[in-house]
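To the structural biology subgroup,

Please find below the input and predicted structure for Tellurium resistance, which we are adding to the shared reference set this quarter. The sequence is reproduced verbatim from the submission form. If anyone notices a discrepancy with their own records, reply to this email rather than editing the shared folder directly, so we keep one authoritative version.
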Amino acid sequence: MTAWERLFGNRGRGAGWQFDSPHMSGAIELTKRHSVYSLTKQGAVTGNLRVNLSWRMRTSDFGERPKTAGMSGLFRKFTPEVVAAQGTAMVSVDLDLACMYELWDGSKGVVQPLGNILGSINSPPYVQLSGDDRFGSGAGEDIYINMDHRDEIKRLLIFVYIYDGTPAFERTHATVTLYPGNGPRIEIPLHERAPEARSCAVVMIENNKKEIVVRREMKYVYGFQAELDRLYGWGLQWGRGYKSKV
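Predicted structure (tokenized):
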């Protein structure tokens, strides 16, 4: 036994086990060939299911963002990054994570940053958005789903849309990741080329009363929420919405 072990015992080792490592359970990527994953079979139908959207600009198109010292650098940190459009113009890209929901009692709606419709985790629809990341930060955006109320949820469509500016999905590295209460995380990269698309249906979470499954969708559309609604038959009424100025 070393002097360190005599002094501190296994304190450091014990502390290490108190935190979950994102690599301990591995990850599953949903692909065209393997597009469905059962949460029920994995025993991952309790607690909160976290859905995360993370994204950043492709450095091959834009280059690394220059570092600036002083106060000017501080203000640049809170300025949206830009990417090159098809010509010489530069555009900003703001990806938003959202969710259309349908409950077994017939209730339908959407949780999204636009309109500040953030939902609720402990009351219907049992889906809540944590906030709006406008700048492609490392943390991204999170939607939480209360799986303890799974029997009340019929289906959830997780989708991503470009709020404003030039459609530029292909200019970003974007990934939607699901973190169940048990088992590996589930990753769905948005890497298909869709130059003119403004919205993408990423994943459907369905409850058929016997099993809850996650199914990769990856359907790009050229419009916004109303077009995704028509594609999946949600039947909601949509109007033009705007975000508040930063």
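Summary notes: DSSP finds five helices and 15 strands in the chain. Helices lie at 3-8, 11-17, 59-62, 70-77, 225-232.

Regards,
Lab coordination
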